[in-house]
Design goal:
Length: about 270
């Protein structure tokens, strides 16, 4: 009976050690995450196998797992860059990115957990400076925002192409110009709009005037052709036709043939 406690103590110690080892060996990967396995006694970071996926994993207690977020993430950036004529422009942009899943081990080995600060931020800033430097403030303010957004995305993606990072989208949310430049551009745009409206009114008035002239010319030509075609013979024939129709009317009348001007008949009614 006295020996039982002496036997039980080592068993308890072994059980505690097993629990500690099991706790150090158990790894749970959360939703939207993946783990990079680091083997302490076997070449360090595992890069020739896929990362550990979501769920429960058991590893050797002397190894460790570095957990990464592999879902799409967003980076907000406020950047001050120079336009083509040297004016300072502020760009508010955001980038959607995520690590390349199957290259997570290489990403950890080459860049580490702070890969955002090491490659993504410098890449998007460099691309923004390069792209905005091609445009004037007026172009950036009025019509080129979509263009610079696409160009920044393409240049940033090219920089990150071999960095084990996937760039999904770049969004330019705002372009802020100095107030003096912004006011000058707005005045210029307003003047251009007013000038276009004035030119439109002039063109419309000119077309209306041309229409009136064409209509008047058409009427004049019609009257000239008609007057040239109305000879004495035609007028006499028309008069005879009218006389015949009147003679057929039931109303009482007296028709004197050949007593009017140019030999036209004179019609005398009973009234």
């Amino acid at each position: 009976m006295e020996r039982l406690p002496k036997i039980g103590i080592p068993i308890i110690i072994v059980a505690i050690m097993l629990i500690i080892l099991l706790a150090k060996s158990a790894v749970t990967i959360g939703s939207g995450q993946a783990g990079v396995l680091y083997k302490t006694f076997d070449n360090g970071v595992v890069i020739d196998q896929p990362p550990l996926g979501e769920g429960f994993h058991v590893i050797a207690p002397w190894n460790k797992v570095i957990v990464y977020e592999v879902r799409q993430q967003e980076l907000f950036e406020k950047m001050k860059v120079l336009s083509s004529n040297g004016l300072e422009i502020q760009i508010d942009a955001s980038a959607w990115y995520q690590p390349v899943y199957n290259d997570l081990g290489k990403l950890h080995q080459t860049l580490g957990e702070n890969y955002l600060q090491r490659v993504i931020q410098p890449a998007i800033r460099s691309a923004a400076r390069s792209v905005v430097g091609r445009y004037t403030p007026e172009q950036l303010y009025s019509s080129k925002r979509d263009a610079i957004q696409d160009e920044i995305y393409l240049e940033t993606k090219k920089i990150l192409e071999k960095q084990y990072v996937q760039l999904n989208e770049v969004l330019v949310r705002d372009v802020t110009l100095p107030n003096t430049i912004k006011d000058a551009i707005e005045r210029k745009l307003k003047q251009e709009q007013e000038s276009l409206e004035y030119e439109f009114r002039l063109v419309t008035a000119a077309k209306e005037a041309e229409k009136v002239i064409i209509e008047a010319q058409g009427k004049a030509d019609a009257n000239r052709i008609l007057s040239q075609s109305l000879t004495d013979k035609i007028l006499q024939d028309k008069g005879i036709e009218a006389t015949i129709k009147l003679s057929e009317s039931p109303n009482s009348k007296v028709i004197v043939i050949g007593s009017g001007d140019s030999g036209m008949p004179i019609i005398l009614g009973n009234q």
